[in-house]
Amino acid sequence: MNRNHALGALAAAALALPAANAAAFCGFYVGKADAALFNDASKVVMVRDGERTVINMLNDYQGELSEFAMVVPVPHVLNKEDVKTPFRALFDRIDAYSAPRLAEYYDPDPCHPVPAAEMKMSAGRMASNATSDLRAREEHGVTVEAQYTVGPYDIVILGAEQSDGLETWLHENGYRIPRGASKALAPYIRQQMKFFVARVNLDAHAKSGERFLAPLQFSFRSEKFMLPIRLGMINARGPQDLVLWVLTKKGRVEATNYRTVKLPANVEIPPYIKVDATHTFGAFYKALFDEQAKREQHRVVFTEYFWNMAWCDPCAANPLSAQELANLGADWVRGDTRRGAPVLVTRLHVRYTPETFPEDLAFQETADRQNWQTRYVLRHPAKVDLDKCVNTESAQRYLARLSERKEREVQTLASLTGWDIHGIRSRAGVEGTDLSPLARLWRWLQGTPTQDIAK
C-alpha cells in the first residue's frame, strides 16, 4: 500500500485511499498470533444490530498529516453525534482476545496410566484543514450536506452527481487523493450514496499530544449489511489484508457474495515450534495464512475465530468489558460481560486484489452459534524408561503410536505452511516415515500394514 497518500487507510472503505470441534479444551495456552504479523493490514471492527451498523476504523497511515484524506461511502448524511473517535487500545484488546492461539498438552506417563475417572476430572479443571473555507455552493455536481469537527478530524459529508466531478471537487478543495479515483467512486454515486470525507485538523492533533491518528467510528442505519473495500484498492501495490471483527447478537457472520471458509485448525504440530528461533508460532501462522490464501487464489473470506465473548477457552486475553464493547458500538451490553453478555464476535481475514474481489463485501448473520477458533496444539511426549516401567504393555502401545504421531505432525506442518518437509523433520528430530522396530511390531500385532503409516 502506498502510505504517502491516505486515501486508503482502511481496506474496508478508506480511499487513501480437516477441523475438529473446539468447544472444550483442557491444555495450556502458550502463545498467540495477532494481526500485527501482516504488514499494513487494515483493521476494522463492525457492529450489526438489526439495521444499525457501526464501523470502527483504525488508520495505519504513516506520512505527512497534511497529505491524509479518507473517503468512505455511506448510505445517508451522518450527523455529528454519529461520528466518534474510539480508543485505539480497543483494537489491540479485541485482536488479542480473538487471535489464533497455540496451546500445549503433556502426555501422561504410560508406565503409570491415570485412571479414566481421574482423567475426566483433570480435563474438567484444566494542509489548512479548516472546513470553514470549503466551497459550500454546488460545484461540479457536488453538494456539501454537512460539515463538523470530531476530535482531530475535520469532516464533510458530500453528495455527488458524477464521479469525475467529485474527484475534481476533492482536488480543488485540497484533498490529496489519487488521480483517477473517479472510476472507483462511480458505483457508489450510481447507488446515490453519500461520502464521508475526513482529513486531519493539524492544530487539534497537535494539542492532543497523540503520536498516532485516532481511530474513527461512524454509525448509520441501512438494510444493507456490507463493508465497502473497493476504494482502498485504487493505489494498492499487490494483495491487501483486511482483518475484520464483527460483533452481533445472534450468530456467526459470513460473506454472501464470496465464499467463507474456516482456516485449517485444531491440529497438532511439532513441539519445537514453541522454542525454535526461526519457526516460531508467529512465523508458522503467517506462513499458514500465506499458503492458504495462495491456494485459494485470494478469492475467499477466511474465518479465524467465532466465540461468545462472555468467556474463552483457552484465553489468549480476557474478554472485553461491557464498557469496552459499548465504546465499540455494542450499546445493548449491560453489566459484567463475564456473566454471559450477549455479544458474539466473528473474526474474518481477507487477502484480496481488485481482480479477485471486484465487489464490496456483503454479509449475513447466520444461526450458527457453535464456538470455533484457530487453535494449534503442541503435544509433548512422555519420557519412557521401559526398564522401570510398571505397565510395559501400555508403554509399548504408547511408543508405537508416538512414532506415528510425530510423523503426522511433520506432515501436517509441511502441508499447512509449504515449508520444506526435510527441514521440519530435522528440527523435529524425526527420521522420515520409517517406523522404529518396536512400532513395526506393534502395528503388526494390530494387523495394520506398516506401509500405511504416512496415509
- Strands, total number: 20
Question: Which strand-content bin applies to the residues?
Answer: 25-35%
**Terminal Cα separation, in Å?**
42 Å
What is the string of helix and strand elements? Answer: EEEEEHEHEEHHEHEEEEEEHEHEEEEHHH
Report the biggest beta sheet as strand number plus sense, adding barrel if it closes.
Answer: 9 strands, mixed
Rounded Rg? 26 Å
Categorize the overall geometry: elongated
SSE-based structural type: alpha+beta
> Uncertain runs with pLDDT below 50, 5 residues or more?
1-26, 117-133, 446-455
**Portion of residues within helices:** 10-25%
Architecture blueprint of SSEs:
Layout: E1 28-32, E2 42-49, E3 52-58, E4 70-74, E5 83-84, H1 89-98, E6 101-106, H2 116-125, E7 142-150, E8 153-160, H3 163-172, H4 182-190, E9 194-200, H5 202-208, E10 216-221, E11 226-227, E12 240-248, E13 253-255, E14 259-262, E15 267-269, H6 281-295, E16 300-308, H7 322-328, E17 344-352, E18 361-365, E19 372-373, E20 375-380, H8 392-417, H9 421-428, H10 437-446
Parallel strand pairs: 2-12, 6-20, 14-16, 15-20
Antiparallel strand pairs: 1-6, 2-3, 3-10, 4-9, 5-10, 7-8, 8-9, 11-18, 12-17, 13-18, 16-17, 16-19
Structural features:
single chain; 455 residues; alpha+beta; nine-stranded mixed sheet; four-stranded mixed sheet; elongated; disordered N terminus; disordered C terminus
Would you write up a description of this structure?
With 455 residues, the chain is an alpha+beta fold. Helix content is 25%, strand content 25%. α8 packs antiparallel against α9 (421-428) and α8 (392-417) packs across α10. It is elongated and about 90 Å long.
